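Possible race condition, two jobs.
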Amino acid sequence: MNYINHLKFSVFVIVTLTVFSGCELIVLRQPYTVIRLTDINQKSPTGVVMLVKRELDSLNTTAVLNLMLSQQLRPLNGIEKLSKLSSVQRLLSRSKGKELIVKDIAYSQNQTSAIVKANFNHLEPIEFSVVKNEERWFVTSWQ
């Protein structure tokens, strides 16, 4: 009888240790860190999106408007800049104090336009439409 109780206890301990070895009750490692692998410039679609975010963090709406092109692939004129200013200010309030994390890039077939899908702090999704004009990328719109 004593042998059976000892065997039951041994099986119980082995099963319990096996079950709990797969669970992390206490996490001993550092939280994930986001590493930026793109340069913040207009040489890539993600770079221009990061450049827009950096200018928004600096409260420089004029620079954001200068990083935009119209739908006809020309720089925005004064009236178009004035009409886009409210959209830039809404994006500024939406992105204030949040980190922009790029999730995906969908290129067109001729590699001159793309849609950059990103999130603010992993929560708020946003899509930037970007186009390539004279070897530099520009933002045309976001939603």
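Job #2 (started ~2 s after job #1):
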Amino acid sequence: MVVDYPEIPEQIPNYKEVLRKGFKFATYRRLRGHGIGAELEMIEAIEILSSGNVTKYLASNPDFCHELLHILKDIKEDLATALQKGVTAGPWGEDYIKALKFVEDC
């Protein structure tokens, strides 16, 4: 991403505009899937975003996609609250401890 490979975006036309639209698209379901797999799909989505350093990028560039950063912060808060209450897994076994690590940078 922009943080690790700053020379790559310079070679791609409209990189930031396209990236911003992709981030905005990710907000439409608040990173959740649908049905019984919604929580698991949310964790998978934040894992993907984290692996691309999106959480770090948004933390240092909060105006780039405020909506996505807000969603990630909400997820972080929800997971932290669950863990404080001793809930470490979702209803279908989703690992909240693992998930919280992906959004720590927000």
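Residues 66-84 form the longest helix (19 residues).
Logs attached separately.
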